[in-house]
Specification:
With 105 residues, the protein is α+β, with helices and mostly antiparallel strands. The chain contains 3 helices and 5 strands, in the order ββαβααββ. A 5-stranded mixed β-sheet has the order 2-1-5-3-4. The protein is globular and about 35 Å long.
Length: 105
């Protein structure tokens, strides 16, 4: 089983199991992290699954789509490593990826 490393808003680091075929958002949500709201359920119509990807993993991800970038622009906590976790499909390529759940807007 693969894993992801989630840093919650209080700074605590958590290792959670991850499976291919799910988005990072689904994996985090299913692990019980309520602070990652994911209100739209992954339909790319909100930014409540905003995360900051560890720079060491950022180059492994595809660039955000224009729609994802537009939604990220609505966040006051956006930085160069911001992504919507619903738009990141989990694969072995990113196993062990570390990210921080963004501040709530």
């Amino acid at each position: 089983m693969s894993n992801l490393i989630v840093v919650s808003r209080d700074g605590a680091e958590h290792v959670i199991e991850a499976s291919e075929g799910l988005s990072v958002m689904e994996i985090v949500r299913d692990a019980g992290f309520d602070e990652l709201q994911a209100l739209c359920g992954g339909c790319l119509s909100c930014a409540t699954c905003h995360i900051h990807v560890d720079p060491a993993f950022a180059e492994l991800l595809d660039d955000p789509s224009d729609d994802e970038a537009d939604l990220l622009d609505t966040s006051s906590d956006r930085d160069a490593f911001s992504r919507l976790s619903c738009q990141i499909p989990f694969s072995e390529r990113i196993a062990g990826m570390r990210f921080v759940i963004a501040k709530e807007d």
